[in-house]
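FIELD: query
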Amino acid sequence: MRQAAFVFDAYGTLFDVHAAVRRHAGRIGPDGQLLSEIWRAKQLEYSWTRTLMGAYRDFWQLTEEALDFAFARVPGADRSLRADLLEAYWHLDCYPEVPAVLKALKAEGARLAILSNGSPAMLDAAVRSAALDQVLDEVFSVDAVRRFKTDPAVYDLVATAWRLYPEAVSFQSSNRWDVAGAARFGFRTVWINRSNHPDEYLDLRPDVILSSLDGLLAAG
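FIELD: result
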């Protein structure tokens, strides 16, 4: 049965988190990929650590701090690019299939939303830059509960706001840990495994595994 609502993680699922570094790759040099990977890894690590400590900072602050750490770990990267990289993060490229898939789901009558660690300002900028504001019904930020995924309170934002049972929501994420958290909460889960990573969290399996969002309509 088609779900009543389709909810998407933002970073890594709709928006390419490595697009900011790629945009300035020629100026960064050969260490650009390493810089981007460390930046993303520390951004997530900080979110998990601060949730466990109960010491919330919004995702933009963590993004800045993670980039500073990445520069410290990759001294060959030009630190003068810091402002340019942060500016680029506000306008990340969305993956090519995203607009068409979301429009098709919307045409079928589904409710569509983002549920993200991103701050409201970050998400607003990314959504408008990708022209997704015309198809999304709502954008949920963890800022409302001041905890990051995979805290159950984050997933409950959707169920409570839309008055839906968890099983009525199809949740899509490229982050396997996020899929595990959503599955534990009770959502129907779709893992967008863009990089063909091995599975993990085997006790909290996704309902569907896709290599991109293209297969979402056929998956039901």
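FIELD: remark
The first helix runs from residue 19 to 23.
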